[in-house]
Amino acid sequence: MPNIFTGTMPALMTPCKKDRSPDFDALVKKGKEMIAAGMSAVVYCGSMGDWPLLSDEQRMEGVERLVEAGVPVVVGTGAVNSKSATALAAHAQKVGAAGLMVIPRVLSRGTSAIAQKNHFKSILNAAPDVPAIIYNSPVYGFATRADLFFALRAEHPNLVGFKEFGGKEDLRYAAEHITSQDDQVTLMVGVDTEVFHGIVNCGATGSITGIGTALPKEALLLATLSQKAATGSSEARKRALELEEAMYVLSSFDEGTDLVLYYKHLLVLNGEEEYRLHINETDALADAQRNYCEQQYALFRTWFADWVKQGGVIAECM
């Protein structure tokens, strides 16, 4: 089974038409642009895709449209009901999705390890030919630990890895107790603020990015510099840390509840009008948030244009 979980994958947001229904033509366009920019695949219907606001049918249509367009897509299985999550996984296998991002059961018995094990097993059983990673996030209120992961992997060979959205300590735990035990198990960094730490200190093979939807070149450069730093290059380490620090505020939007609002606004600043509207009419940045976002985006872009002139390993990795 090929392991899709390497490289940098942007988590696609759901663009909206004027009536706030999903614009799947714009979704496919964005997916193609991301692959053309050098991304290894895209993720659809994780938190960035606003999965709780879409029907299962809408989610399946978005996935199917991306697959039909030749875009390798990793499908988020977030659902309140395990039956829905299982149906989404079965659909992903049926249409030829490249991977699954297995999201824990939420709300109903979400803190129960046995309930989560059964939830995961149902999803993995429904798509046995699709490589899958379990998505660990404090937002979902359940942390998959090594014992549960390897119990599942023993029965489900399609479970090939782990996406960690937590901070430094959570990534360290995943590397120390899960992914370093078996070289066939992959770690993906799930939060934009920890790409360097995840790749260099935890052996991550890639990342799932939010900021990369707006800054694909820069997100890919950070990953490449980090990979080079992981081989022992002192210059790459220095430059990767400089870039990560400069991107920090923009990357930190990924950690908050307004991440979709911020990243859609960055796309609008890039000229992508199809991201101006949100599925819920009342979802909007406050004026202060929008102004801060714009100031930080302008500052970063000015800094980056100056910083890349230094050449050296920066030029090698671009």
UniProtKB/TrEMBL annotation:
**Binding sites annotated in the UniProt record for pyruvate:** I208
SUPFAM superfamilies per record: Aldolase
Any matching Pfam family = DHDPS
Active site at which residues?
Answer: Y135 (proton donor/acceptor), K163 (schiff-base intermediate with substrate)
The Gene Ontology terms for molecular function here are: 4-hydroxy-tetrahydrodipicolinate synthase activity
What keywords sit in the KW lines?
Answer: Lyase
Q: Which family does it belong to?
A: Belongs to the DapA family.
Task: Tell me which PANTHER family the record gives.
Answer: DIHYDRODIPICOLINATE SYNTHASE (PTHR12128:SF72)
What protein is this chain from? Dihydrodipicolinate synthase family protein
Q: Which organism is it from?
A: Roseibium polysiphoniae
